[in-house]
């Protein structure tokens, strides 16, 4: 809570160009890798943020589309537009994506950029960016407004991700708003749940089949022994 209060107090008064320059110099002095912030002539600055993806529900992506190449990215080719076929799958839990952004990049643009990199075609409104802060063994997770500037928060907190990190999660508003999903998405969810259920049943069956075999073997070995 103290960390959050400090950051909010600093945000209330817009920093002067000289203050920004000093903060960037102080930030870069603490960087232990090459991910420095760079001040531009127009007063804006660029840098890197890391976003942890902690999505519990499957996402919708184009079916049968290869991953985007550097050549595609340079040409700004949107592979998702090349097919109307869709499929759903779970992104790896706790995957981390590094983004190079500007001080003018908003939370909304960060979310859209992440979805584009993973070719996720779900509505960006289904997702939210959170800041996670640690202080004295406590963890505070706070949802960021869409107009917030993540790079400025990174600058204020310093490069240590143990102090502040960014997390992409579902935009929880209480109960799941199933009306926001299309019919194909809901059908894909059912298919995934059905497959997970069958896999879980098979795991339990294999577990008890092995237990049964070991028990029968033990009884067989003890059959000719007294007592």
What does this structure look like?
- With 227 residues, the chain is α+β, with helices and mostly antiparallel strands.
- It has helices at 2-12, 17-30, 70-74, 107-117, 150-157, 183-222; strands spanning 38-39, 45-53, 59-62, 86-89, 95-102, 127-135, 138-143, 164-170.
- The chain folds into 2 domains: 17-68 and 79-175, Phosphatidylinositol 3-kinase Catalytic Subunit, Chain A, domain 1 (Ubiquitin-like (UB roll), Roll), CATH 3.10.20; 179-223.
- The chain is elongated, with a radius of gyration of 24 Å.
- Keywords: Apoptosis, Coiled coil, Cytoplasm, Cytoskeleton, Metal-binding, Microtubule, Phosphoprotein, Zinc, Zinc-finger.
- It is found in: Cytoplasm, Cytoskeleton.
- InterPro entries: RA_dom, RASSF1-6, RASSF5_RA, SARAH_dom, Ubiquitin-like_domsf.
- Residues 87-173 form the Ras-associating domain.
Label this structure with key terms.
single chain, 227 residues, alpha+beta, Ubiquitin-like (UB roll), 2 domains, six-stranded mixed beta sheet, two-stranded antiparallel ribbon, 8 strands, elongated
